[in-house]
Amino acid sequence: MKFLFKALRSLPLPILNLITSSSLVAVYIALPKRRRLAEENIKFAIGGDWKRTAFKTYLYFARMLAVNIKYLGDRSFVERHVKITGIENYRFAKSLGKGVIFTTAHFGNWEMMVCAFAFLHEPIYVMVRPLDNRSVDRLVNEVRSSCGNKILSKRLSAFKFIELLRGGGVLGVLVDQASSDNTFKLDFFGRKARVNEGIAVFSHRLGVPILPAYMKENGRGYEVVIEEPILPDPSKSFKEDVEEIMKKVYSRFEEWIRKEPHKYFWMHNRWK
User: Fold this and answer.
1) What was the pLDDT predicted at 214?
2) pLDDT on residue 132
3) Given this model, what pLDDT does residue 179 score?
4) Are residues 82 and 60 part of one domain?
5) Does the residue 268 lie in any domain?
6) Last residue in a domain, options 12, 45, 71
7) Are 194 and 178 in contact (CB under 8 A)?
8) Phi, psi of 109, rounded to the nearest 5 degrees
């Protein structure tokens, strides 16, 4: 895997784009069930020309994959092409002394976003789901770690994350995919979706501010956008506050996705 990665990384970006785009178009054609899933998700969530949006989604993620193969972990690329807006929101959240949780969705180039933040400001801890293929998982985490961030498996005990946040640590978490249980559901584009409420539980119990953030493209450059923090309300009951926090998080996600729906990972069975 490392040899293949290095070989691909040595190619010019236009050639990489051609390879990844061809591969994703082949997947689009060869896996009709996955394609129809994306189309149906877009149809019910966004409407419009959902088939065209689904195809654009495949092409967008192909280009994103090419950029990440070529430049993820490349400090000089980040310093030339990426900027951060909303850093004052991060500084305010961190000044509270409760730790910070960054949260985002599978929207835009989330991998490059956390890498860029590490290079341009400071490294953070990133919670990830281990990949099924161990060799691929090792390679991906090596590339992620090359940005300076510390990678933590989501399978670690909750006490590890509590300890990290109580020590003032900064944790990045993707929270838009389906939870493995049926205990907590929210409206997401008008349909009930299973949600992992862990970040809201940490926020309520520990007073941790949550910072929604995403990356957007500006011509040939990129911009990490850090939004205003979502703060817990200690006057509310545990159940009320957790639900309210997650509603606010998912409301931010919907706002981003509605503006540029082809940049969301619709191929996931979000409403299963």
Assistant:
1) 98
2) 80
3) 66
4) no
5) no
6) 71
7) yes
8) -95, 80
Amino acid 130: pLDDT: 86
In the chain, which stretches have pLDDT less than 70? 179-182
Instruction: Return the sign of the alpha-carbon dihedral for residues 119, 122, 123, 127.
Output: negative
Q: Choose one of 18, 42, 71: the last residue of a domain.
A: 71
Same domain, 100 and 41: no
Q: Are 82 and 23 in the same domain?
A: no
Q: Which two tokens stand for residue 64?
A: 């994103």
Beta strand 185-188 with 170-174 is unpaired
pLDDT attached to residue 7: 95
Which domain covers residue 14, as residue numbers? Answer: 1-71
What type of residue is 82?
A: V
Same domain, 65 and 91: no
Domain count, the chain: 2
Could you tell me the CA-to-CA distances from 113 to 48, 97, 128, 186, 209 in Å, in that order? 29, 24, 15, 26, 19
Same domain, 106 and 3: no
What six digits make up the tokens of 19?
Answer: 């390879």
Q: Is residue 267 part of a domain?
A: no
Give the CA distances from residue 38 to residues 43, 59, 111, 157, 167, in Å, rounded to whole numbers and listed in that order.
9, 13, 21, 33, 41
pLDDT at 180: 67
- Are 175 and 107 a contacting pair, CB within 8 Å? no
Half-sphere exposure of 218 toward its Cβ, with a 13 Å CA cutoff?
A: 12
Report pLDDT for 182: 60
The residue ranges of DSSP E strands in 32-91, in sequence order, are: 82-85
Looking at residue 157, its pLDDT comes to 87
Q: Are residues 123 and 184 in the same domain?
A: yes
Query: Domain for residue 169, yes or no?
Result: yes
pTM: 0.94
Instruction: Give 261's DSSP letter.
Output: G
